[in-house]
Amino acid sequence: MEDSAANADFLVEIGTEELPPRALPDLQAAFTSGLESANQ
User: 3-state class of 33 per DSSP?
Assistant: First the structure.
C-alpha cells in the first residue's frame, strides 16, 4: 500500500495584512526552511 501522507496536500493560511510587504519574501523563505527542517 502506498504511503498517502507522502502525497497529501498541506495548506497554511497566515494573516500578513499588517506586515510590511518587503519583509514577506524573507519570511516566506524562513517559514519554508523551518518546515523542511522539521519534516526531515
Answer: helix
The answer to whether 27 and 19 have CB atoms below 8 angstroms apart is yes
User: DSSP code of 4?
Assistant: G
Measure the CA–CA gap between 25 and 6, rounded to whole angstroms. Answer: 26
Query: How many domains is the chain partitioned into structurally?
Result: 1
Rounded to an integer, the average pLDDT of 15-27 is: 93
The parent domain of residue 7 ranges over 2-39
The model's pLDDT over 6-15, given as tens digits with 9 standing for 90+, comes to 778 889 898 9
- Those residues with Cβ within 8 angstroms of residue 27's Cβ, 6 or more apart along the chain or in another chain: 16, 19
Mean pLDDT value across residues 3-32: 87
